[in-house]
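Person: I keep going back and forth on a fold encoding question. Show me how you would write down a chain together with its backbone fold. Please set it down just below, with no commentary around it:
Helper:
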Amino acid sequence: MDRSLYIAMSGATQTLLSQTANANNLANTQSTGFKSDFEQFRSQPVFGPGFPTRVYAMSERPATDFDAGPLETTGNPMDVAIKGDGWIAVRDAQNQEAYTRAGDLKVTPQGQLLTNDGLPVIGNTGPIALPAYDKLMIGDDGTLSIIPAGGNAAATVVVDRIKLVNPTPGDLEKQNDGLMHLKPPAPGQAPRPPVAADANVMLIQGALEGSNVSAVNAMVEMIELARNFELQTQVMKTAHDDSGVAARLMRMA
């Protein structure tokens, strides 16, 4: 009895964790540049003294869906979307380089170029800081040009270039901050250097990439997970009832 009870218990626990991940995907159907997470179940032997006679269910996130989301034309010159493959380099909360597809940019009164989430955008030499300007233009290759404040409207000045990268998808992992990071090195290996800029990555100005989450698929998966949880709790109840019957038979004997 304890085997079926243990399997059902671990399965119900992992189903709740998968439901949490699926709910996160569903909550980000309108998030700019969001990449959904895959989830899968598998059985795992319980190792310990003696032979592994028990198994438990395990939920894991094997990968992130790197497919591009739909493009939405906004007409806002501060909105940019990656054309094809590639990422925008930013600084995360720990001041480490990370990567995003969310191109809804803004400029602070101090001239810092940030994402809508407040992350500094990286340029040729670090986080981008713009001088006072009358007009800002973002080129297809990420070049930032301005008409200086009070300057000649026909004279543009190139001040920096957004760092655009295109690392191998297998080298990236999504962390809890929703950004893509380079996977940590294997034990004994040196830390990975930041990804070099790729001149082939292009931007589309005046557009944003939407989330690649399918709301319909996420809802279907939510229903399936709810049914799985219900079945597992039924198995737990059946195991409990069978255990009670067995105990009564033992007392009768």
In short: The CA atoms of residues 121 and 127 lie 6 Å apart. The helical segments are 2-27, 215-252. The chain has two domains: 2-66+213-252, 71-209.
